[in-house]
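User: Second chain of the day. Same drill as before.
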Amino acid sequence: MCESTSGRKGLVRGGPTSLLHWVSIAVLALGTSGCGQEDAPRGADDANGQVNAKGSRPKSADAPERPGRIILFSMDTVRADRVSGYGTAATTPYLEEIAAEGVRFTDFYAAASCTLPATMSIFTGLDALEHGLWNEAAVLAPDVPTLAELLREAGYRTQAFHEGGYVDAEFGFDRGFDQYVAYPQRKVVQESLWSILDWMRSAQNESYFLFLHTYAAHDPYGGFDRYRREHPERGLPTREEIEQWRRKFPKREPGAASHAFTAPAEIRKLCTLFNQLADENSERLGCGYNYLPS
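Assistant: Same format as last time:
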């Protein structure tokens, strides 16, 4: 988690805003369509000068002035080259299909390397140093407008399904949403898709803004017991051995030296592997690192 050097809980907005500005931010990773509007030309790319599949450059008239549906799908810690259309991976064919009907941004950079400041920059249009959310004690200042607030004022229904953590309501992410529904980690993609689709059907005749966020690709990845079962040749430790290490090498207190440095190299290696494949952060062991060494 990024630590704040300023200690501020949010700054005043950096200048005038408009609905068009905020909508343009939301369109970074989503499909939009306008009620009663024709779809944008298939295959249109970004401002690299490429032409669309019809052989002509996309025109501004192809996109509706007011999108009927805006969906912002945030996949926490997913690398761009693991998304279809950005690298060689064929992992997200439906997102690639949506992108083929609109605009695909090839030069887009996160405002920060941490979930909290980076996501709040998307929601506010401000740099992380401007909105001030660098640590868990920060809360967005009440006079900074959010994307959801402006869209709701413009007549959009606003809904979110998320997995908490660093996009939790306590930081101000819920502002402007009619409902800001939290699920346990990974559950948005594992168990709630039917609920999301039901909500989308209920709002199909209205303009809406839908925010989806998941940590499904975030560590810890889970599955240690299954990995040990499927790879007996690796001789991985049993649950009993793991609990023995947990007692012998407790997690360090803040400011204390890590037990990972005192554990024997082979134990440290196995503890680090377990920490990557633990089901929850609370299960991680003090005898290993939280991240695999480079």
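The radius of gyration is 22 Å.

User: Great, on to the next one.
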